[in-house]
C-alpha cells in the first residue's frame, strides 16, 4: 500500500502507530500496538501468535486482514509491520477478551470521523496540530516556524512535480543536493542534528538556533 501521513496517536496513554492511506482514504493501525493497548501484554507479538492459534477463522484470514506497512519503531528506524484498517482491527478485537474493547472501538470511530472532517475542512488539521504541540509544551514561535516550514516544503515539492520530478528516489536525490550545497552536509547528517536538537530541548539546552531548525524542518519533511 502507499502509506501517507504516518503518525503516532494515543489511546489511554498507549502509543498506537497509524498510517493514512490516501488512495483508499482510510486509517491503518499497527496490530502490535492495538494488541498491546488492549491487553497490556509485555510481549504483544507472542500474544498475537496465541490468539491466532485459538481462533482458526482469524488465522485463516490473517493475510487479508493485515497489510505490511512501513512504520517507525522504538529505535527510530522504519520497518514493515502488520497493520489493519478499521474493519480488520474490529475483527481482531473480537478475539481479545478485554474491558478496554468498547472504549477502543469508540476511540477508533473518533479517529476515523476526525480524518473525514479534516478532509472536508483542512483547517481542522492545522487546529488539531496546534493544540497537540501546545499540549506537548512547544512554544508558539516553534509552532509557527514548523507551519512555515511545511508551506515552504509544499511549494518546493509542487514545483518539482510540475517539472516532472517523481516522488521517492528523485525527491531524495534533489533534497540531498540542496542540503549539501546549503550546508556542506548530507540530509542524513542534518537529521542527526535535528533529532539532537529535540533531545537537548527536553533539558532546556537547545544546540540549534530557531533559524537553523526552520531550515531543517523544511528539508526533513520532503
TrEMBL record:
Pfam families: Bro-N. SMART domains: Bro-N. It comes from the Bacteria. PROSITE patterns: BRO_N. Residues 5-120 form the Bro-N domain. This is Bro-N domain-containing protein.
Amino acid at each position: 500500500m502507499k502509506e501517507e501521513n504516518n503518525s503516532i496517536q494515543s489511546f489511554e496513554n498507549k502509543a498506537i502507530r497509524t498510517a493514512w492511506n490516501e488512495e483508499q482514504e482510510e486509517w491503518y493501525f499497527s496490530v502490535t500496538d492495538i494488541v498491546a493497548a488492549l491487553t497490556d501484554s509485555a510481549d504483544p507479538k507472542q500474544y498475537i501468535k496465541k490468539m491466532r492459534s485459538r481462533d482458526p477463522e482469524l488465522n485463516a484470514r490473517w493475510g487479508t486482514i493485515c497489510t505490511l506497512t512501513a512504520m517507525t519503531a522504538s529505535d527510530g528506524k522504519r520497518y514493515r509491520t502488520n497493520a489493519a484498517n478499521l474493519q480488520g482491527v474490529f475483527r481482531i478485537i473480537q478475539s481479545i477478551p478485554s474491558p478496554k474493547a468498547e472504549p477502543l472501538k469508540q476511540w477508533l470511530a473518533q479517529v476515523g470521523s476526525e480524518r473525514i472532517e479534516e478532509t472536508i475542512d483542512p483547517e481542522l488539521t492545522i487546529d488539531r496540530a496546534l493544540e497537540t504541540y501546545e499540549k506537548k509544551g512547544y512554544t508558539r514561535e516553534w509552532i509557527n516556524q514548523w507551519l512555515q516550514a511545511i508551506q515552504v516544503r509544499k511549494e518546493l515539492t509542487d514545483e518539482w512535480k510540475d517539472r516532472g520530478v517523481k516522488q521517492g528516489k528523485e525527491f531524495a536525490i534533489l533534497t540531498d543536493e540542496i542540503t549539501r550545497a546549503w550546508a556542506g552536509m548530507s540530509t542524513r547528517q542534518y537529521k542527526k542534528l535535528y533529532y539532537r536538537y529535540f533531545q537537548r530541548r527536553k533539558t532546556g539546552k537547545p544546540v540549534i538556533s530557531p533559524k537553523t531548525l526552520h531550515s531543517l524542518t523544511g528539508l526533513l519533511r520532503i
